[in-house]
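Researcher: Before we compare anything, I want clean individual predictions. No alignment, no superposition, just each chain on its own. First chain goes here; please echo the sequence and then give the structure tokens.
Model: Echoing the first chain and its structure:
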Amino acid sequence: MADLSNEELKALLEKRIAELENSDTKEEKVINPESVQALIKTLALPNDFAPLAQKVFELAPRTSVVWLHLAECTGCSESLLRASTPDLAELVFDFISLEYHETIMASAGWQAEHNIDELLKSNKDFILAVEGGVAPIDTYFLTIGANGESGYEILQKVANKAKAIFAMGTCSSYGGIQAAAPNPSKICGIAEVLQQKIVQVPGCPPSDINIVANLCFYALFQTLPNLDEKDRPKWAYGKCLHDMCERKAKFEAGVFAQKFDDDLAKSGACLFKVGCKGPYTYNNCPKVKFNAKTSWPVQGGHGCMACSEANFWDEFGFYEEPMKNLTSYVDFSFANSDKKGSASLDKAQIQSTLDDKRVILSFDNETRLLYKGLDDEPCDFLKFEFESNVKLVLANIAKNKLGASLLETYKKEFAKNYAFIEANYDDTSRPSSDIFKFFEYAYVLARGAFLPDMKTFLDLAASYKFKHISPLDIKLSLNDTEAKLDVSKSFRMPLIYLSGGLEIEALAFSACELMFKNLNQALKHLSQKQNKAIAFNFPQSYDHAFFQSQLARLD
């Protein structure tokens, strides 16, 4: 489903107003304009939406909401109870009609069951909010209610009648903590058992603002918000949490807390070294905060746990350590796949391959993306060049205040490695387009030695026990004439991550994953543009299970 533009959303409001003004079902109400303005701001909509939204809420019947509790801890409801602008009372009396919520409704037992059954029989329109995961296999793990129905059965019968469904919290989105290994009750997120589109609102718990604003968005527009590839509302989950963090400048400067509650932590130092998973997490916590915008975990002195990401309990390691192999609960391995390339080709062989109507991604001394030109000579579609002299790279990083602080931290914590760089690199510029040299940069920083061969680096990448990439700020620009791969801003990242407690295995994994991802994207672009098949050219030292796993993505 294509995203709705602001113009389209505005048209929906104008249409609703026209319909409501001539409707017998309109319910004229007094709505607090401050609450409407707060919702419009939260949803990142233009200011001129506020008077239209005000009119809709003043005229529209309250949208009915059914809130189900499945396998959960009621933390999401606790978050809902702390809503402000609108607060809970204003929300349920003016904006929505909360038809069913086991924790806060007056009825219980048979009466509660009767209420929801009557709602379903009435064919009244409602939206469904689900808190908690579901046990669809051994359903007896979640037997609830006066009729002794399983959570799975209740979910199915209510979801079948719902106009829209919101998975409130990480448990209903992905299974949550009760789905952590070994998951004896076989809990999963509700999207795995329902056929309808599910709006995921993850978090453990989500902020009250993310819960309320999503319900009010549907009540206002009668449609789902724009969603990302994981079916999360873009307005709330469209940006990396780390990029909005008030401690990010300290991260860039290499200023890390060494332990909880030390002077550095109290003075605003980055918490990455004591386990913050902010760079891997997509949520708006720093912006909207919790408990009426009082605070959020990082502001309160504890690192982000990536609680809004799938399988956060299993896949992000010990929550007070960076993602190092020693802290991993699970292991990811890379199996050999069928070879898709060949040992290094000479010029004649490359020309012959290109004559076969193919484009070639070549890794032999230079990283090139080749296609057959008008003169039958290989043309390079890839524009990729960088400074490979580590000493000059570090000098360039230190040209601004944050970079100078970062380099000083590295010199202090990796004195032997820095001494190796000083002893083995001069002041001569060494431009390169060889991916091996890009990888060697990270290896030299981490080990204080030259990278012996590509296999060593690929071994390190394959041995990393997490599958989450540490962002490196590699940029790819594509057009019809070239693919420009810019790694200039990425050179500071290994310094930051090393100072923040990551190991060479993590750097090798992230560098490989991101570099190959961008090269594959450029290759696909060229192959589709040329309408040609894909071939690869690489030295024997690249013939490795991890490397093959990257090439296999193009199948």
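Researcher: Okay. Second chain, same rules.
Model: Second chain and its structure:
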Amino acid sequence: MAVRKKLHPASPWVEVSTSRKDWDSADPEVLKRLFEQITLIRVFEEYVLGLASQGLVHGPAHSSIGQEGGAVGSILPLTGGDFINGSHRGHHQFLAKALGHVAPSGIDLAGTMPEAVRTVLSRTLAEIAGLARGFCRGRGGSMHLQWKEAGAMGTNAIVGGGVPQAAGFAWAARQAGTDAVSVTYFGDGAVNIGSVLETFNLAAAWKLPVCFFIENNRYAVSTHVDEATAEPRLSARGAGFNIPSWRVDGMDPLAVHIAMLEAVAHMRAGNGPTIVEAEVYRYFHQNGPFPGSAFGYRTKAEEAEWKARDPRDLVAAQLVRRNILTTEEIDAATTGAKAVMDAIGDELLEPVPGGKVGQRRIRADEWPAPGFVDVGVRGDLSEFAGARIEDRDTFTGKVGERRFIDVVADVMARRMETDTSVVVLGEDVHRLNGGTNGATKGLAAAYPDRVLGTPISENAFAGLGGGIAVDGRFKPVVEFMYADFMWVAADQLFNQIAKARHMFGGDGSVPFVLRSKVAMGTGYGSQHSMDPAGIFASAPGWRIVAPSTPFDYVGLLNSALRCADPVVVIEHVDLYTSVGEGPVDDLDYCLPVGRAAVRRVGGDITILSYLAMTSLVLAAVEQLGSVDAEVIDLRWLDRASIDWDTIGESIRKTNNVLIAEQGAAGTSYGSWLADEIQRRFFDWLDQPVQRVHGGEASPSISKVLERAAIAKTEEVVEKLSEITSY
């Protein structure tokens, strides 16, 4: 007969509640700060909803009214050196962290408001309204609030999207030798999302000091938590990842505070991540000034039941009961907070000329200038001031025949030796004598604390790398084994990392390097073979480099690591085993940003290519013999870095263009490039821009079908023969 043994979770899961004794013994200063911040945030949010009802908030206004106790109670134990990030409903968390930063000793709401507090309120309100004085210069609005100086690292409109980055903040804090912790706020709707669960696992495996704070407000828009999961006690997730978890009544700010003190102590002691689930209730609908009952998914009775447990009223009653504040002082605090918000509103708003009584509009000089629209998509490259810039024609170091993959490993080793901020992470980068291709050979032994083998969880570790980059103290180099895996991590790559600089105002750097490879021709099939250049080129924010020689790889990787923007370094497996001219012992130069290389001078036609296709094009031209082609290796592929000077000079000479690439037609890089060329150089072209690319379908496993799906030398020869026969 089978023997059954009852198993128990490895980490504790507890529920925290308060008694009268807890309230009696609570520090009066803690209770006053809870009340002050909850009151100020409540009044702020009521003012925002008033603006929304007047049509003065463009876009959603995700009110946190009812949930303030969870935010204030959990952030009060944090220091200025700790980090938070959050979700689209994040006004309360952002304000709690910012207010704690500028007024750590508390705020007398009935007295003269400190100018620093007033500025926080003004800039936050302006951001929600989309105005220039906002923390993100009006680009973030209600959903994207960031003030890194206060440790408020950014709220996020993608449900669960900020969670992996919070793990990056935690890793950077620990690696820097501090005891800082990271807290990431998200709701019941995010708990079942893959990136959140992936990050639970990664944070637990690496014992990162990150708190996963679940605001269980019971509704993901209108879907009740009981409909979305069979275990609505969401902190139960912790047991599956060996994460200690706390469950607490979020309408009781003191209970949240007590639970968070315990969680923070656990993390500061180096014991790894925590989960805190606070049951809270948003009084209003997903966004806007109407209650959920107005939309039929909640009852008025349910709303009244939760409002009877209001966190502000609870703290106020306890303050009065303990004779810490009087009823008059409680009322005066509310009146004072409202007066400040009215005064701030008067600065931003003005009466509508000829409008109805009380009708207002945004003052014209508060809006961002339209010309600011694209500023900060990428940086200005000022970080290259003082850099050693070389190209092959200026390089005086010793060169020799080098195997491409050896140079990949050598230059990364050199950068890790000279720059202790560089950290490498990805699947198997620490094993197999340098990962699956040898690109990280020797690094794990030399730098074990900076070469991090990850679980198979691209969303989590790409986002963690993004958090490290936003933090700014370290430079992550994230490796994806195959370029196709970008789709698995698409949110982190395109919604988060690519947009972060621009979305949060245009000033913050995001020094993130992604290495990935094109594996066409290796028999790995449809999901391991794509060329991602066309996709990355269509995503604002990325810079793209595509090295085709050992010499270029060294300079381009160094430039990528120096760059303050996210850079994807696309590699090709066909090049790994190739041999070409490269530096023997000088690995410290950067290739100039935005400069292509003319690989062959000619007068008949300009051929633009990159990666392994460049050598195939050169072979085709040599094989054909009858076409005097100018072959340009683009090297930099993003819109901001294309070398239009070199391309334009060639086109004015040849009056013909062929773009040659291996990838599939649908995701091709050449499609946008051809469009841009024909608009820029139409008067110089004797015929439409011609193209060589792969087929519609992704490469298949079959050797025959794979060859049929991609472009190589033969396809270039065929196209050139076709062109010359016109």
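Researcher: What stands out in the second chain?
Model: The chain has a mean pLDDT of 96. Additionally, The first helix runs from residue 20 to 25.
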